[in-house]
Structures
1.
Amino acid sequence: MTQLSKPAEFDTAAEILKGIKQPVRYIPGEHDVIGDDGKQFFERLAKEATPARSYSFDHAGVHFVAMTNVLSFEKSHAGGFGSDQLEWLEKDLKGLSASTPIVVLTHVPMWPLYPQWGWATEDAPQALSYLKRFGSVTVLNGHIHQIVQKVEGKVTYQTAMSTAFPAAKAGEGPGPRPLKVPAEQLRHVLGIREVAVTPTHPLALTDITLA
């Protein structure tokens, strides 16, 4: 939502978001929590979040879990949930039928996509241990600014493009920096993702470039 967690940036985002007529849910990226551990972000955009910085909701028979894994990013340069949030997740999932489709929303990937660049969540294995009894789990994340997907058992991991700038592919170049492309190609590597939810079918994901 912001680049440097400045109040003016949140104000600008709020004005833009007024044009969206549907309900919107938010999770922070590491740039949204600079200097205040996400205080502005959660007060403005995710008041429903617990003190552990997570929340859940249900839609069309699917249980959505929104989790924050960027509060430790500045120190560890990787994602992390922390013990309070993991405890919350375990309690949140209790009582749900194993046939309930689960969608987990995070910013940093939960699978070790490229730990050398911080493209991983250190305590994701514990979170995944609470999810292993469910027959369908989809993890949606951003952070790496490109489309990458993986299926591991009953868990499908899907990353998405960014609306800001593209990033280099894992291991290509000195680090996870913005990727410069010719101006005429830029809108082809930026985009949004549509997710269609129906009770009896897997999630249908469609990635659409800004071109």
2.
Amino acid sequence: MNAQSPGDETMPTRIRELPTWVISRVYAHSHRLLNEGFAAAGVRGYHYRLLAALEDSGPASQADLGRRTSIDRSDVVAALNELAEMGLVERSADPEDRRRNIVSLTRAGAKQLPILDRVLGDIQERVLAPLSPAEREQLLRLLHRLLGQGP
């Protein structure tokens, strides 16, 4: 990875050496790769997150999916509309509350998920290529700690 983008070398050292600056540059690089990889597969990151949540926990309401994937409610609806048009999910009325939709993964969606997993795995490999397996594990542990999710 070339975490440097045009202009980084002229960025004042006091900024260039800040962890927040470096994290933001790595994020920008990895986000670009994710967008490109998913676009080549005909989907977006939101699509993957929703499909993965459905595969992981089964059918769910749109609101639950939004909470589980940290996607805004209006974005969930738009992304689910796109996934339904692709035949990857289907909506049905909740038998307990007909005003609410339950979203399910279709067979096509279940088949698409491993393909997207490979796309995501390739991107992870590209981002983390300079690191050894032990360094990758350490990085992930440290990032989780920064998020308050680990020891």
